[in-house]
Each structure stands twice: as C-alpha cells, then as structure tokens.
Prior knowledge:
The complex is a heterodimer.
Chain A (H helix, E strand, L loop, with lengths): L7 E5 L11 H8 L7 E4 L5 H14 L5 E8 L29 H16 L3 H15 L13 H6 L2 E3 L2 E2 L9 E8 L13 E9 L14 H14 L8 E3 L5 H10 L8 H6 L16 H5 L6 H13 L13 E8 L4 E8 L4
Parallel strand pairs in A: 1-2, 1-3, 8-9
Antiparallel strand pairs in A: 3-6, 4-5, 7-10, 9-10
Helix pairs in contact in A: 2-10, 4-7
Chain B lengths: L3 E8 L3 E3 L2 E3 L6 H11 L4 H4 L4 E5 L6 H9 L5 E5 L3 H13 L8 E7 L15 E8 L4 E10 L8 H11 L9 E6 L5 H10 L3 E6 L11 H14 L4 E8 L3 E9 L4 E4 L8 E2 L23 H6 L1 H6 L1 E5 L5 E2 L15 E5 L5 E9 L9 H7 L2 E9 L2 E6 L13 E12 L2 E10 L5
Parallel strand pairs in B: 1-13, 2-14, 4-5, 4-6, 9-10, 9-11
Antiparallel strand pairs in B: 1-7, 1-8, 2-3, 6-7, 8-12, 11-12, 15-16, 15-17, 18-19, 18-21, 19-20, 21-22
Amino acid sequence: MDRSQVEEGFVGTLGFSGWQLGNASAVLAEEAGTPGVPVSRIENACASAGFALRAGVQAIESGARDAVLVAGVEKMTDVPSARRRYWLGVSGDTEWERLAGLTFAGVYGLIASRHRAEYGTPPEALAEVAVKNHANGALNPNAHFRKAITREEVLASPRVAEPLGLLDCCPVSDGAAALLLVSAEVAHRFTDAPVYVAGSGAGSDWLALQERESLTSLAASRRAAEEAFRRAGLERKAVNLLEVHDCFTIAELVALEDLGFAAPGGAAALTLNGSTRIGGDLPVNPDGGLKSKGHPIGATGASQAYEAFLQLRGAAGRRQVTGAECALTHNVGGSGASAVVTLFTRSPP
Amino acid sequence: MTRSIVAAALVRPVWEASGLRVEGPDEDAFTLAVAAIEELGLPPAELAHLERVDLVGEFPPEVDWGIGEALGVDNVAVHHHHEGVPSFYGALAAAAAGLPPGSGASVVVGVDLATRGREPPQPRQAACAVAVLLKEGPGSRVVGLTSRNHPPERRPDASAWVRQAHKAAPEISRDSRGILGVIAEAPPPVLLHEWQTTFPSLVPVVRPWELPEWGHLGSCRGALALHEHLQAAPSGEFVCIAAIRKERTDFLALRRDAEPTWHGDWSESGAALPTPNDRPFALAVDLEAVSEGAYVPRPRYVENLPSRWRFAAEECGGCGTVTFPRRGYCRHCRRTEGLQRVELPREGLTVEAVTTVAPGAQPTEFDSLVAASGSYSVALVDLTRGARATLQVSDALRGSLRVGDRVATRLRRLYPMEGAWRYGRKAVPLLSRS
Lengths: 349, 434
C-alpha cells in the first residue's frame, strides 16, 4: 500500500518505557514510515488505542479525512525487572489507592472481593475465564502465551491480590497493532472486503474505586456501550463475538454484565456453562484476550479491532467464529476511569 | 489554681516479640502519641480547646505541627521533655502549673519505644504510650516534686532526703494519710525507716522497676505507678511516688481528691499479634526514597492532610450530598458554592471490600513495610453518607479481615519520601483493642 495516502494518524501509547514522553507521536510517525503526516498521541492508559480508534473514526465521520492510520504500541519489557512494577502503579488513583498500598491488581482484587460478597461469584468462574482465554490464545500465533492451562493451575497459582492469583492477571507484554481507517466511499481502493465501523461509544468514571456508584460495575463501560449501540442502531442480539478488556479474570465477568450481555452477577454462570467459548452462543475473546494474547498497554485497543477485522472477514483460521457478522470491542483504561466500545459489521450498516 | 489529673489513657501496640509489646512497623512515637490522646475519648468540643501538649520521649520533627493537625486542634503549644520517669513526672508538674486559670485542658504524653533506629533494643525493652489529661476541677492534684542526684558510690543521707521531699510538698504533714509508692530495684531499708518515722500514716508499697509482663519502660512505668496507687488510695489522701535509681531519686506527691478516669488497657492481659520471626521490627529504611512512577509532591500531601487524617469532606448546602475527598464542587449537583466542611467518622466503619496484597505486588513505597511484616491487606471502608475510603489494614492477622467486618482507624506511618515519613489513616480491626 502506498503510505502517502495516509492523511493523519492517531497512536495510542502509555509510557514508551519511560523515554520520549513528550512528542512521542513524531517519533512514531518516523518509525511508521509516514514522516510529515500529522499524528496525535492518545493516552487513556489501557484504553489508549481504543480511544485512538475513536479519534480516527470521528476524523472520518466529520469529513475532515478520508484515510487515517490508527495504531497502538507498547514496549514494556525494556525496563529491568526491578522496575517492572512501574507499569502497575501509574494508571490508577495515586492519592488514595496507591498510597493505601494498591497497584492495579489490588484494585481489581477489591472489585472481585465485592463481586463475590454481592453475587457469590465463585473462584471457579474466574478461573474458567483464564482457562478459556488460554485455550483460545493457543490458537493465535500472535499471542503472548500459547499454552493451555487448567482450572486447578489457576486456582493454585501464587496469590497476587486476594482473591486474584498470578494466573488471573494479564502479563506485561510488548506489542503493536495498526489499522488503516478510511471513509466507506473510498474503501474499494484498498480492499474488496472492508470491515465497517458501525458505531463508537465512550465514557468515563471516577478514577478511584472509592468514589464510584458501584464497586462491581464500571459506569464508563456502561456509558460507552449505550452510546455505541445507539449510534450503530444495533441490538445486543446482533453481536456474534466480543473482544472485552480482561486485564484480570474478574474484569471479563464485570464487562459482560456492564455491556448488557449478562444480568448483574450473571456472567459467572454464562462462563461456567461454556457460552463464551469459541463454539458457544457468545464467544468472548477468541484471540485469547488480554490474559493470553497479552496486554501491551497502549496497543490492546487496536489489537482487539484487528481480531474483529479478521473474524468478520472469515480469516481467523482455527479460532474462527462461524458466521460472524457483527463484533464488539471493549477497551478500558486502568480500573475503569475510561472505556470505549466499538461495533464492527461485515456488511455496510 | 493548678490543674488536676482527671483522666489517663494507656495504649500498647498490638505486636508482640518475645513476650513484650513492640511498636509495629508502621508505628512511631508520633503515631503512638496520637493514639494515646485519642484513647482519652475527649469530645470534639473539648479537644478543640486543648491548649498545651507536653511530649516525653523522642519524636520526629513533624510532631510539633502534626499533633494539632491529627487531633483537629488549632494553636496548641507543644513542649518537649526527654524520655524517662523523671521527665514524665516533671512534665506532669510543669503542665499542672503551666497555664493561667480559665485556660483549656492540657495533656502530657509519654511514649516508650522498643525499637530505636537500627540498634538492637535493650534487653526486655517494651513499647507503650500514655496520655494524661489535666484540667481545672476535682481530680488528683500535684502537690510537690523534687529530685536528688548523687554518685552511685555516695549513698544519700536518708533523713536529709526525707526533709527535702517534705519541703517540696508542704501540704503533707505528719498526720497525712495515704500511700508512698516506691519504685526501686530492692526495698531501701534505711530510707523506708526514715520515711515511716516522719510520715507514719503514709503506707509504703515497694515495687520493682521492671514489671514482669511489661518489660523495661520509661514514662509508662511512672504512669503505671500512678495507676496502681491512685486506684488504691481513698479520697482526700495523698499518693507519693519515690522513684529510686542508683544515681537519682525522684519524688512526686499528689493529693487524690477524685480518682482519674482510666482509659485503655492498664492490665497485663490483652491479645497481641506475634511479629514475624518473633523479633521486633528493625526497619532499614532509606528515607530519601524517590518514587519510581506515581508520586505525590509534598505540597499536595500537606494540602490534603485534613482529608487523609480527619476524613474532612464537603456537604452540599443545596442537595445535602457529601463529597469525599473534597473537590470544591458537589459530586451530585455540581454546585460550587454553599459547601460546608464536615468530618466523617473515624471509628466503627464497615468493610465493603478487602484484598490482600502479596509481597512483590506492592507499590515500591511499601517495600520496607513488606520486608518488615510481609503482606498486608487493603480495604474499601464505608465512611457513611455515601463516602468511602481506601485504607491499608494494620494490626490484623494476614487475610483475616472480611467484608462486613467493622474497623476503627489509626494514624500510622505510610511510606518514606524525600527525607521524611508520610502518615495517613489505616484500618484496624475493632477487636484488636479489646
């Protein structure tokens, strides 16, 4: 493809391993082979690329641009292991959560604690999320982990932030993903099988868990889903597969409830009965999710869109969801301060 | 009109090593002083009129302004004294006489620490803190204070000493009834004889310096003597304490018009948590730590002390919603005017969610805490009125706190940053202090 056709770029990235924090987008334009093209760096923690995609969608929907490059990138393993914890402590609430001794895992540990207290969510349901996603990741050549695991292994893994153990947590990964977003009118210039963005929605919520309305639901996700479905004019039953933000196993359960695919407290049953496996009624994270595919923070939102793209073109190989017509991606920043939902369809909306 | 002792509170850290109470890895003289004063249970209106605090022991520098900030008292005068029984008794006498009539209350706080810096603590050294409240009105009144110093080789003249004590406490006459509490390694026969001759109606009671269940204490040893004898003495009688060391004897005389109210646990019993490895915590901490990522600059930390230390929040004059922490606008109706400062409760709070952070999963600020005591829990606690706080849990067996449990909060060390400790409230299980 002739890169000079790209008119603008939006890149999601969080830390750049700590270097080049300012003007990172200029560096990225050079590396992407599009020097001179205006690029904006979008940062919403783990939702950076999802919001970069949203910015690209809005640039095209507004008529300002016809062809936009959307990308996400994160290099997390350049830091020495002594500084690995750096990544875990910079996107949450600092004043109260960090200074009470929490990093990321701890905040989700609190959510899991409350979810169990309110709904009786059993540890087996959390473990099943990890098992399913690892089984899916084993089918994904780009996944960080490509090895199946068992429920017993998850339940016996070393505890990180009760009730979450090591195998409930997504890894620290390096990765990148890029998307070419164009207006529908010119899509035929690039491919015979484009995938359409039917709608985008986004929301935010209080940074610290302590200030939110609910401890077991991310209002940002609910707001994002509501807007996306409204703009797309689609119902939930139209969706054939989901790519949700499973930074921790509990996050996938909460996501299914927030996005409206399970009643509050009902995602555990849905997971335990196999509905969310690739062959089930509502496949969730067929590419392995953040848990197994990996979570390079700034790239994840774009990699979810990449999976939607493959699935809707029938090009997902061994992890193909049969008859996929509509996909939803769900990308969350931190413990839920921001969220963005995008709906994709195989046919023009 | 001097002030009388009307109440006293004793707090002992919950951690135990080799049978003695030691302060936990997140406690120091400042936090123990605040805990002792809080144990007095003063109503907020009375606390707000506290005029003077005498501190006996070694304290970090922020205690001078920190005591007032932690208690919600403006403009309290802070005086410092060296640690030990002589200083504690001296502080009582100074505080009793130190304010003009009509002034508010004053508190004398003595803190004994088992761990000091990096040196191993003295054998059998224990931790304890006591706060004594002095007010105008009926109580136990200091009527005399004196001391005698001499080289250990030269035994003091017993009758001269008794004369000196008598001169210091002219209210006490030959007919005065009461107790002479002697703290000494061994009963001093000559001195006791001289005493009995001069004051036949003061009953001598001799006790050792180190009490079996308490270990070696400073100020608190002096306080325990007051507790024992003020309880035993009938109203209107005198309690004299003679604290005898090899080189020094201190003499304090009180008249017990009314018994003080005793707060806290003055007995030897009480559940304690064992320290890991049964050794007192000796923290090797780099105070000059610099954060590796997220960082709260000192001005921001200081600005937010009211919300951190007193759960200060804002109540909306329009819709009544409480916003915590304060943001300058109502979280419900977005109004920016008519917001009133309120303080949310610091005791009797319910746990809404809890997690236990494994070693290695903590922010780097808490590396030294984890090195000293392993993993810790963090709880989301209901502050009532729709507010919640995220608080580290202390003084609890690992993983023992459950959703629905009730907790109190205590001021504790949080983490070192750029040369000083930072402090904040932590949740402690309500049972740990019973």
